[in-house]
Amino acid sequence: MSEALRTILQAGVEATREAGCEADPGFLWDFWYPAARSTEIRAQKVSRALLLEVPLVLGRTAEGEAFAMRDACPHRGIPLSYGRVDGNVVECCYHGWRFDASTGQCLEIPSLTSQDKLKVERIFAGHYPCAERDGYVWVYMNAPGSPLPEKMPEAPGLKVFSEKYKITHLACDLPSHMDHGIIGLMDPAHGPFVHQSWFWRKRASIHEKAKQFEPIPNGFRMSAHTPSANSAPYQLLKKITGEPVTTTIDFALPNLRTEIDQSGKQWFSSRATVTPVRRDLCRIDFVAAWNLPLPVFLFRPFAKKFLRQDQETMIKQAEGLRHNPRLMLIDEADRQAKWYFALKANLLESRRTGAPMVHPMDGPVTLRWRS
To answer: What region holds the Rieske domain (predicted)?
Structure first.
């Protein structure tokens, strides 16, 4: 990221913070979130991350397994990331308290004497389940003070359709609340304006579209369909394979957008997540895999430009949000955003009451918009 863009991004963060989003962070707990790239977590080293405003210390055990703990020693609160990893033990730099990296259980307090009756094994540093998928370390963020589920759900994995494929990862920060990032992710109408380019689409190519959607657990699906004729990448895929192209796009809580494009034996699979870092800052993590005859070094520049366009738009939006304007959602281009907010509200209500979650969709529906 250039220094100029970094300055603009920070200004956007400050603007969003001033917009009055301090009252309720609106986070969704009890889900997996990507905390860092796997390559960033190295043996016998500690790394920091911030998820849902929770500071985390990340590392690897002697066996290479990733771990995540709350980045605060339960003794005096100093970040454990200032300490060190010794095999399977995290040691605090302040008083040498030692914790099992796999469980967070305290193993040793060097200052204790034989006269002390403190039961060290009853002390725990905050600890979070970890899993590695597709080159990311995922952390399960259970709500503060709540137990982990008896049966842990699996961390999300990118769908692939052959043993051999290429894969790449990209990321960018957005100076906004996760809700703005997520509804921007699913917005179908901004493409001709934000992503104008020879390799995607032109403003003059706007036309009416009709897509069928169906409910899925915790989300909704744009059913398998022939992609838009005004999107160059899909037309290129059709030319390469000589076969029809089908696209399926899913969104699922808390923040997952997946897209699968298939044409004959050729396929392209991608996942984008909008992860809340703070209430005024989120991060897009994008991973894509494919078996097309497309080298990674050719794909990445186009994908980076696409993400940069979204990032620059969100920076501009943050400038407007600082004045706390009245906002609106329209039908039918914004129906997906409405579903997202309803899904989120209904999930929280279900957790509060214990009643089954009510899905905002009764069944398949066709939406129409121009883009």
So the answer is: 32-139
pTM of the predicted structure, to 2 decimals: 0.89
Per-residue CA distances from 200 to 22, 127, 229, 233, 234 (Å): 37, 44, 11, 7, 9
User: Mind listing the pLDDT tens digit for each residue in 148-177?
Assistant: 999 999 999 999 999 999 999 999 999 999
Q: What's domain 166-370's superfamily in CATH?
A: Naphthalene 1,2-dioxygenase Alpha Subunit; Chain A, domain 1 (3.90.380.10)
Token pair for 91: 């040691």
Closest CA to 213 of 331, 357, 335: 335
Write b or e for each residue in 159-186: b if 16 or more Cβ atoms lie within 10 A of its Cβ, otherwise e. ebeeeebeebbbbbbbbbbbbbbbbbbb
Q: Residues 67-113: pLDDT tens digits? A: 999 999 999 999 999 999 999 999 999 999 999 999 999 999 999 99
- At 219, the amino acid letter reads G
**3 state SS of 367:** strand
Amino acid 103: pLDDT: 96
Q: From the centroid of its chain, how far is CA 263? A: 27
Domains of the chain by residue range: 31-141, 166-370
Say if residues 234 and 260 touch (Cβ distance below 8 Å).
no
Fold of the domain built from segment(s) 31-141: Rieske Iron-sulfur Protein (2.102.10)
